[in-house]
Amino acid sequence: QVKLVESGGGSVQAGGSLRLSCATSGSIFSINAMGWYRQSPGKQREMVAGITSGGSTVYADSVKGRFTISEGSAKNTVFLQMNSLKPEDTGVYYCNAVRLVTRDDTYPELWGQGTLVTVSS
């Protein structure tokens, strides 16, 4: 009934930029925090950026200074602006929400299906 939908993935050259977006579907009352995670084949999924409902942000050391997470003007929408992309950034990027509240349910954690980002050297 409620979903997170990522978009904006694609193939870019090293040094390029890409903007990912995550939109919610369904009637959402509130979300405590949202974040972006990535997973490469054979590697553990890791958090790359997160933002709380109050606007506080956190970043993985590997992306700090290059990636920016932000809230959209639309309600319950989050973006990940990725600049100076490196081949090491290649992976499937997943949108995550914690404490997502609807009229009928509270979701402790919810994941999108992911969007593929490929960075070539």
Protein model, in words:
The model has no long low-confidence stretch (mean pLDDT 94). The chain is built from no helices and eleven strands. It is mainly beta. The chain is elongated and about 45 Å long. Strand 9 and strand 10 (106-111) form a beta hairpin.
- Overall average residue pLDDT: 94
Number of H- or I-type helical stretches? 0
Radius of gyration: 14 Å
Report how far apart the termini are.
40 Å
Please give the number of β-strands: 11
Low-pLDDT stretches are none
Helix content: under 10%
Helix/sheet category = mainly beta
Overall shape: elongated
Topology as a string of helices (H) and strands (E): EEEEEEEEEEE
Describe the biggest sheet? 7 strands, mixed
Strand content: over 45%
